[in-house]
Design brief:
3 strands, mainly alpha
Amino acid sequence: MVIKERPFYQYFDWLLVLAPLVLTAIGIVMIYDTTNLTPGLDTSDLLHDFTFRQIVYAVFGLVVIFGLSAIDYHFYATIRWPIYLGTVALLTVVFAIGEITHGAQRWIDLSFFQLQPSELSKLVLVLVLAKFLADNEREISRWRTLIISLGLIGLPMVLVYLEPDLGTTLILGFIWLVMIIAAGLDWKQIVLMALLVIILLPLIWLTLQPYQKNRVMTFLNPEADPTGEGYNPLQARIAIGSGGIWGRGVGSSVQSQLRFLRIRHTDFIFSVIGEELGLWGGIFFFVVFAFIILRLLRAALIAHSTYGRLIAIGFAAALFFQSFVNLGMNLGLMPVTGIPLPFVSSGGSSLLTFMMMVGIVESILAHDKATHLRTSPDDKKKKALPKTPQYGEVWAYK
């Protein structure tokens, strides 16, 4: 039977492409609203205009989605060690030449682009960890396998933590936890690890930077320091609350336009959305994020290989935790951690990283489906037939 080849993009999950683009488009409008419309900001230089740069990142991200989807995702397994070592090298270089902003050293200035290696590390570690867990699927309950997997993600986590970037460190830890559970970790080991984390919490607290401890304490009582660490959380709540059900309208926000809300185009962009689009606008964002996560999990369910399944699950874990923490931070349900809202906040590293994740998941869907359809029914029947007993073999039939 002859199977006619079809272009790989015909196997796409187009909804998985459309939903992030919707978030990105709304994000660009909000970035324009919070920067170009704000009095006193000079946006005449396109290279320093947040809106223009975000549009460029979005266009390049769309190209990245289609470019990565055309590559068979198994290729990433063959280059996992070079990209892993390259990521570790970039995380190390940050300490030597990285720019310090708001007390953290996370960015490498490439003149045309501010590279944040910790964002890229989320994608790379999922690819590396997925291959290791897939190769050791039958030994996942052995402590040796667990320790090695933790070692793979442990070094980048330590480097990210020392930047310091607690938010991304927690995301990497969450990715590892979800992936090892998805790989078949025994529940007894899960309980033991949970107990270990609880025991280590006092030690983790002692290693936090002073401003990180202040953020945790402010989360518990933001009114205690309304002009310091509690300022942004309080202003974010005011912005969201003032939006009401229908919002004030795009370009009509008070907290943003009068610059009461700081870092409004990155970490606290959802507060602007809440003020301008209201409760229904906020619900829309929650629904779209949930939809994207469900499409990623759907890709994991229909993937034909353990490697592809774990990649999709790892990316879903990264998107879930980062969006959950950012939205919770804006709503006052989580401490301020300084991580952007995926697809929405201003910033090239975050946007391109999540666009790359979408492209790789599309590759899983496209190449797995194409391989499945190229297999003729006759070949499938041959694979399903039992082999003929060889000399010296004894088969028992019921």
